[in-house]
């Protein structure tokens, strides 16, 4: 990573402020500031190592569409008899995303559902992690394609739920 002298100076001043505001974390800020002051370019990336790449608006919207689909599935399943086998289908509940391969997606849905307190019906436990431990995006995309084709997407019949879940 390359930084101009102006960018370095700006970050140095910000780090000095952070050192004063958060003395318990000052050591890390001092290390980062020292790297910037001395031009140790190899270590610039360390300053930003906790910043993830951005999700585009389109990626975020796709995730919200997936959550909307699961909202529809959840509410539609509630209309079926409790003993209906569809309640136990492995895709009947939103499982989240793989923490290792889809970590950014998992973090976004956790942010949206837990931090912003949305989609309460998809919170199946007190502190959901939304880590499916297996890649889910392609599965959700296939389901989303079938759900989008439904005439009344938010009120699904048993047959439509089966179609969305199984294809």
UniProtKB/TrEMBL annotation:
Q: Which domain of life is it from?
A: Bacteria
User: Where is the signal peptide, in residue numbers?
Assistant: none
The family database entries (InterPro entries) matched by this protein are listed as: UPF0304_YfbU (IPR005587), YfbU_alpha-helical_sf (IPR023146), YfbU_helix-hairpin_sf (IPR023145)
Name the coiled-coil region(s).
none
Pfam families tied to this protein: YfbU
Protein name per UniProt: YfbU domain-containing protein
Q: Which organism is it from?
A: Pontivivens marinum
């Amino acid at each position: 990573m390359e930084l101009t002298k102006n960018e370095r100076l700006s970050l140095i001043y910000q780090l000095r402020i952070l050192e004063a505001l958060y003395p318990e974390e000052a050591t890390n800020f001092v290390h980062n500031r020292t790297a910037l002051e001395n031009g140790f370019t190899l270590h610039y990336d360390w300053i930003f190592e906790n910043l993830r790449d951005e999700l585009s608006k389109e990626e975020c919207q796709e995730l919200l569409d997936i959550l909307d689909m699961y909202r529809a599935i959840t509410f539609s399943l509630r209309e079926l008899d409790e003993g209906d086998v569809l309640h136990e289908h492995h895709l009947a509940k939103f499982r989240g995303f793989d923490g290792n391969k889809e970590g950014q997606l998992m973090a976004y849905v956790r942010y949206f559902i837990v931090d912003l307190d949305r989609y309460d019906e998809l919170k199946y436990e007190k502190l959901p992690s939304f880590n499916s431990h297996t890649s889910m995006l392609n599965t959700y995309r296939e389901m989303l394609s079938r759900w989008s084709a439904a005439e009344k997407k938010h009120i699904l019949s048993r047959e439509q739920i089966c179609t969305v879940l199984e294809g």
